Amino acid sequence: MSYELKERILCLDLGGARIGAAVSDPFGITAQAVATIQAKPHYIDEIGKLLEKYSATKIVIGYPIETSGKEGKQAKSVKSKAEAISKQLNCEVELFDERFSTKQAQRIMQSGNVSERDQKNVIDMLSAQVILQSYLEMRSVKNKRNERIIKGVVKLMDDNKIVLIGENNEEIEFMVDDEFEFEGAKYLVLCEDEESEDALLFRLDEGDDGEMLLVEVSDDVEFDKVSKYYFEN
After folding, report:
1. Which residues contact 127 (CB under 8 A, 6 or more apart)?
2. Distance of CA 27 to CAs 4, 46, 58, 149, 154, Å?
3. 44-66: per-residue pLDDT in tens?
4. Whether the predicted model's global pTM rises above the 0.70 cut
């Protein structure tokens, strides 16, 4: 199997006192925590040094929107800082939902028996690593979406398989990799066979005649929300 080299991404978790930093590997698959910067004057210069050190061409910044999805005071502050970073470093900056990153980082440290004193030293950059890993995984899934299938009637099979019957009565068999509920709807993660690395996200709906319809999630907003929930749970 071959992998294509990609441009590295620098991820930042902008805290009030400290800024955690993580970078992607050259293939855009994994994230690594690399540094903690003090949030003092000229901190953007320190970010610029990290960009140069790791040859990164893009910055992803954790966006602390509220659990309701609204932009609060902290999120507005981060957005303002992101704009300043982008302007001063002349670099592409993207905001990415970080609502659950700190809790995930804390669970990782607790499972690794990291002392409370050491936790304070690594929590920020580990949070940046969690944010970046979620971003890389979501981008990977999004890039693999297969838009040839829009919707079809579901035919249930044995052995965790289903057959999707399209509008022209063509039948395509899928393996059910996972299923879950989100905001009152049921979603399925499907792949064409056990060895396939491509996963497709579908929503299970009911047709006018009561038949079960499997609809591929093609709306970017819905896809991002559902994928974010799936990867974090």
Report:
1. 13, 20, 62, 98, 101, 102, 104, 105
2. 6, 25, 14, 28, 36
3. 999 999 999 999 999 999 988 77
4. no
